[in-house]
Amino acid sequence: IELAGVSDIALWICEAAADRSVVAVFSAADGMPTRTSVLHLARLLAASGRVIVIRLAGSDSIAEAVLGWPDQPGLTDAIDGNASFGRIIRRDGPPLVDVVNRGRPDLPTRDILDAPRFKVMLAALTRAYDHVLLDAGDAAAADTSSFAGIVPRCVLIVRDADQPETLAAFEQLTGAGFEDIAVMSGTMAATDPSGQIGRAHV
Fold first, then answer.
1. How large is the average pLDDT for residues 77-93?
2. What local confidence, expressed as pLDDT, does residue 194 receive?
3. Secondary structure (DSSP) of 85-146
4. Model-level pTM?
């Protein structure tokens, strides 16, 4: 693992080709929310371009309290045809970051990722935004193969790089087909802009 600062990971994301602007974000442990870390990274990226976060994991009371709008229409409403794409996008700022909530928790994530409306929406978002972050939640519970089928890179949020859960999650993501993985300290990234991130190449 090559250690780097948050700014270096933001640069890694910024320097990617336009067809690699989408990044999935996972956590290595059950009960370790990704939300606050994803928002922290998104706010750093917002200094250099337009950013949107798509929340595909379950609820997070901390992030919902920060965002202040947990009950608005979400991604599943747009997929079902009950809300327009424009209606489900909300803004967190400053700095300005757009966010899309998941919506209904009962619709499997694989069904969301495979839905034609989601594919159309994701293609449109990659044209409208410089960076698209997919908040995927716990890697062990996520359909990582489905994510790897639409995005080649991801960030893994961990408590400790030396924990067995970190290695297990990393191996799961590489096995799913991700081409490039960044390993980030969730505690430091969520609270300290100078927190360190580890970069892992596969």
1. 83
2. 39
3. HHHHEEEETTTTEEEE----SSS-HHHHHH-HHHHHHHHHHHHH-SEEEEEEEETTTS-HHH
4. 0.85
Residue 150 C-beta-side C-alpha neighbours within 13 Å: 25
Token readout for 157 is: 């949020």
Whether the CB-CB separation of 63 and 29 falls below 8 Å is answered with no
Residue 50's CB is within 10 A of a number of other CB atoms, namely: 15
Q: Is 38 within 8 Å of 53 (Cβ atoms)? A: yes
- What is the SS3 assignment for 152? coil
- Token pair 């990722």 is found at 113
| 66 pLDDT more than 90 | no
Among 139, 103, 106, which residue's Cα sits nearest to residue 118? 103
pLDDT of residue 59: 54
Beta-bridge mates of residue 181: 154, 200
> Is the bond preceding 73 in cis, omega lying within 30 degrees of 0?
no
Alpha-carbon torsion angle 31, 90, 193, 8, nearest 10? 100
